[in-house]
Amino acid sequence: MAGDAKSFPLPSSVRKVPGTERAQEALPYYTQFTPEDDDRFWFYNSMHFPEPMHHFDLVTAEAAYCALGAFNTRVHVLPTTKGIDHRVINGRVYIGGVPVTDPNEIAMRQEKFQARAFYYYENWEELYAQWKDKMKALIADAQALPRPVLPEWEPIKTTHTGKGVASNHALLDIYRKQLEGYFRMWHHHFEFLLLGYGAYLTFFDFCKRAFPEISDQAISRMVAGMEAEIFKPDEEVKRLARRAVELGVDQHFHDDMVIEDVLGTLDQLGENGREWLSELEVSRNPWFNVNVGDGFYHYHRSWNDDLSMPFAALPGYIEKVRAGETIERPMDRLVEERDQLVADYRELLDNDEDKATYDQLIHLAHRVFPYVEGHKFYCEHWYTNLFFNKIREFGALLAEHGFFEQEEDVFHLTHYELESAIIDLMLAWSSGSEPLGPKRWPAIVQDRKQAIDLWARNTVPPALGMVPDVIDDPAIVMLWGITRDNLDSWLDTGEQNQKELKGFAACSGIVEGTARVVRSVKEIGRLEQGDILVCQVTNPTWAPIFQKISAAVSDIGGSMSHMAIVAREYDLPAVVGTGSATSRIQDGQRIRVDGGRGLVTILDEEELLENA
């Protein structure tokens, strides 16, 4: 740390929101800030956790950082960085990297990294195919877990077959298998991810040295035009729109439709209606197993659980199909532009050695990069949604026995507390007495519901602690967009033009329009045609709304963040990593987005008159 460096508020200075003290203290001790944490740098991970976290949902951070750190620190052995520590205050997840600064340790780790990571790079396609098989098997295992039940009487076959295990034991077995599968999934998640970022970052650094004037966006466009599973759900919605027009049932899809009514009407309509419904089922399994969020909140339900998102997109897509407009991603143009950029910059290199290195690095980036987005479909979406739905089954069982009112209340318990409640129920069933949970949990659940509401109204700083001199973690730089320059700009807000916000140039294009500040997925429905989306972060499953918006701006994110990647794949002008767009831009204001320069301008009345 620089001795006279500027600092964000220290963790010890952040006070618990009044009325939420008990909810804060109930979090695991290892997620609480300690006095020693004042000496470190932390930033609010609003990319993955943009809303206050329910107590159970925090398992998503715990499992993810267990796996990320393991692969950074001890599996692939990244040379300059280890894992990520996390702390939770007022429902918000702050994270801090663990850098490696000793040159001798870096050299030792570099040697190990080359022996391990290069094996993956050399055998990427084969290992990635194995990875998909592993994920599909893990999903099948989770789907096969039985629903937890407690019969009044043990089935007689338990005694007649010599089974020797009563039904209450199954509760603990099912729950622990759910948790084990979820933690295992995150290890699969990070098996390739940091290597994908590392390959791109190596190419990025080479380009910055070889072409001093090159923009970040030009480098990122050299890996655009990818095919990845996470884009498939939106492609399926487009396919359904085309089929609706082809089958002559398109008139039933409009902005005011009631989904259940439409499904019922099509079922009664005749052969064409039923054929469209069968096409819907083809799309739903597996492609609608995507959450409306990024997979870290239990209430970000999948499209299969709630068809609102895909059905909201159908009228717009259908209208474009009727008009003969293309609704596909501009893949041919993206690939053509990508290949031309790669060729043009290669010609600028002076010698064969640099050209050979350039060819090797861009070839590797093209091979590995589809995983950076493709894995999300299997991990954060399909598996995580399945996991949360399995936890709901325990919520229903506990609600049935009076532990709380609704099955969703289960998510106000930590995963440790949920196991204790399950054991409480197991004990009561076995002894024939009443469980103690119904006297304990309702008041706690109510207290934590209030805490979530209070935390949601509370504004949190984007970072805490001293600003580091150097940030070498490829995930922190590429995914979150946390660089020293960015942090300095966040700190210097008082010295900046208050009508301008700077961030990463995610996708070029200049657009003026009405800002629609969306702070959660629940507010997506507020977007109107031509709006500019201003949010903390977005993800590929929001793609169906991109037909409505004209540009996008985010608080968090780097050049390889999911929002930046999606914006480029859909050719949507975007600026990411502004740090404070959702707090500095008011809903309904007119703004200008310059995606090529990474600049967002809040237009004042005089500018509005000039443009009128």
From TrEMBL:
InterPro entries in the record: PEP-util_enz_mobile_dom, PEP_Utilizing_Enz, Phosphohistidine_dom_sf
Return the Pfam families for the record.
Answer: PEP-utilizers
Question: One GO molecular function term?
Answer: transferase activity, transferring phosphorus-containing groups
Q: Which residues are in the PEP-utilising enzyme mobile domain?
A: 528-598
Q: Record's NCBIfam families?
A: PRK08296.1-3 (NF006151), PRK08296.1-5 (NF006153)
Q: Which organism is it from?
A: Altericroceibacterium spongiae
Coiled-coil positions are none
Task: Tell me where on the tree of life, at the top rank, the source sits.
Answer: Bacteria
Q: What is this protein called?
A: PEP-utilizing protein mobile subunit
